[in-house]
Fold:
Amino acid sequence: MDWRKLFGCQAGHELDYSPPEKSDKSLTVQPPLEVLEASTAEWRNSLVGQFLGAAPNFISLQRTIDKLWNQTSTGARAQVSLEGKNLYIFSFNYDVARDWVLENGPWHILNKPLILRKWEPNMQRLNFDLSRLPLWIHLYNIPLELYSRECLSYIASALGIPLTMDSITASKTRLEYAKVCIEIGAKKDIPETVEVILANGKTSTIFVEVPWFPYRCRKCSTFGHSDKECMNKTNPAPPQIKIWRKKTPLIDNAIHKTENLESLKVALPDSSSSKEIVNSADNNSITEP
Structure:
């Protein structure tokens, strides 16, 4: 019996059987190289994205992406796929559209910051390490002799780990400032200036502008929340340990005699005879029965 007919599989939905290789401990499958390459090509123009903080509603996210990233003139389109909790895959039909989104960041979708990176094959985990993030920065007052990939790499290395520059900076069609992307840690501060020693020995000052810097917590070295919002308590106070002791008969008897003595002082009139009785009771109260 062909069970596919029971499900009424549409074209392209059916699955094919390929026998696995059996071993003593597990079953192993090895798709042919051409199958792996075809599957990789399907996701090659994709970006991995994660929001800093709570993610927006999925339907609202897709609608916003359609308005921001889809280009009717070129036919470029982005598809949003939910990969996990607050983790998304943005698939593009053209690599130019994907690169345009990367270079024109940072992006805030529905007032929520979104961090992006290119998808690469053989990535075991797609989650971001929020202890380090890529940031776009602007470099001003760059002498023309420093406007090269090598020189910009030296300047960006003073700020963090240099990653890339946008296409306009690479083409040198905008010389007002250079837009470069660097990777920094949550505890690192970006300086406002960088000094560069030129060929003649003189120093040129490069001014640094950070268009957007995410919230960060120095307590747990993580981006995405501030120190005040940190849920990880450092060095919590040790809990107080209370020790309960059982009362001994001697203490109970002394308390009982003290209570009788106070009652006797209140009941007796203030006279010499009563004082003798009270003194006698005081002397007897310290003697163990």
